Amino acid sequence: MNPERRRSPRKKAAVQAEILLQGRDVSMRVSTPDLSLCGCYIENMYTLPIGARLKIGLWIEESKLRISGIVKTCDPVFGNGIQFLEMSEQDRDQLEKYLDALNED
Q1: How many CA atoms are closer than 13 Å to the CA of 65, on its beta-carbon side?
Q2: Where are the beta strands (DSSP E) in the chain?
Q3: Which fold has domain 11-96?
Q4: In this model, does residue 105 exceed pLDDT 70?
């Protein structure tokens, strides 16, 4: 039995990100050790509460993808698992191309 619950596999991908919690005015800079089409893990010493809604900016190459998400897991002092909720079709296509290119390396 496979314990994997993700809809798409995460790949090792160190990407710079910016997160903004719903209802806040100040964003935080974080990085992702892994990434998929449906979510990511963010490294953050000041972890976010499960269920928190947020906006994510992911820098893929020279572009900033804009994604809305929700915090699904919390590992105190380490980071959070984020599920992507909405992104434009163009941003999704760019993320998919980036992740596919990781397979070629």
Answers
A1: 26
A2: 11-21, 28-35, 39-43, 53-60, 63-75, 79-87
A3: Thrombin, subunit H (2.40.10)
A4: no
CA dist., res. 45 & res. 5, Å (int): 25
Both tokens of 94, joined, read: 């760019």
Task: Confirm if 20 and 10 have CB atoms less than 8 A apart.
Answer: no
Quote the tokens at residue 91. Answer: 């941003």
Q: What is the residue extent of each domain of the chain?
A: 11-96
Residue 8 pLDDT more than 90? Answer: no
Helix (H) or strand (E) holding 96: helix 89-104
Size (the chain), residues:
105
The pLDDT assigned to 93 comes to: 96
Contact indicator for 35, 15 with CB cutoff of 8 Å: yes
Note whether 15 and 59 are within 8 A (CB). yes
Structure tokens at 13: 């991908």
